[in-house]
Amino acid sequence: MADIYKAGNKAKAEKPKAVTKKSEKERSEKLKLVRKEVYHLVGKNKNFFSAFVARPNGLSFENQMVQEKVILLLRRHCITNLRWIALVIVMAIVPLFLRVLPPFGWLPGQFRLVLSLMWYLFVLAFFLEEFFSWFFSVNIITDERVVDIDFVSLIYKRVSDAEIVNIEDVTYKMGGVMGTMLNYGTIYVQTAAETREFEFENVPQPALVVKVLQKLRLEEKQEELEGRIS
Amino acid sequence: MTLPISFWLIAKICLLFALGLYIVFALVLLRQVYMMTQVISSTYNWLIKLFAWAHLLGSLLVFVFSLIIL
Predict the structure, then answer these.
(1) Which fold has domain A40-76+137-224?
(2) Is the pTM of this model over 0.95?
(3) A114/B44 touch (CB, cutoff 8 Å), yes or no
(4) What are the start-end ranges of the H helices in A57-108?
(5) In the predicted model, is pLDDT for residue B45 greater than 70?
(6) How far is C-alpha B60 from the geometric centre of its chain's CA atoms?
């Protein structure tokens, strides 16, 4: 009788192991599927000078972990640069009209030339500052965290990041004629980390970015769950 | 219209001083570009650095040119 009981216990003990292995496999399959969905959603835009760069090659950032993969790099929509580009064009034309005005016309030729050159240097400085401000102010979404890099002025930068598991709430706001027409808006990411809120200002395709963040949160939760089991 | 030479000398010094300040600004910009390319590193870093170096070189050339012709 005792042997029968022992055999029965063994059979019972082996069954949950097989179930666990199967469920672990299912979970890793599910994780792969989520990642595939994310990659499918973002597509492949590797143009580094774009406002929406998906899975860029050769991009790394400060404090990036070894196996951390960049999924999205976002900048302000290109159309938001239109104002300063128009200003640069107007500023570049100004000296052509100034030549006919009396105070400028009275100056000796070499002074006029140097003043014009100085003006164009000033225009160039304005252009470079605005361009670098747009180019380097990026929001990076990796498979582990979100990074917000702000290049406010020439002498001020701010870098903050939060892990995706710490994200509590993601909302986005789209408004105005241009925003609606060209599909860009501001995303607010609430986190439980020290930096409470991240703002992705005027980024292209905000709905898609929010969806990607949701998928990544799901993936992180799944990973966390797997970590507990194994 | 004839103005005393000293006026043009003062104007020349003022212009050269402003151009000198601009060179400092170009140096700050170059430094900032190097800092930012360390934060975000990409295969296009050389192009951005080239812009900043060209800007510094341009401002130096304008300074030297102004020094000669004024």
Answers:
(1) PH-domain like (2.30.29)
(2) no
(3) no
(4) 82-98, 102-106
(5) yes
(6) 5
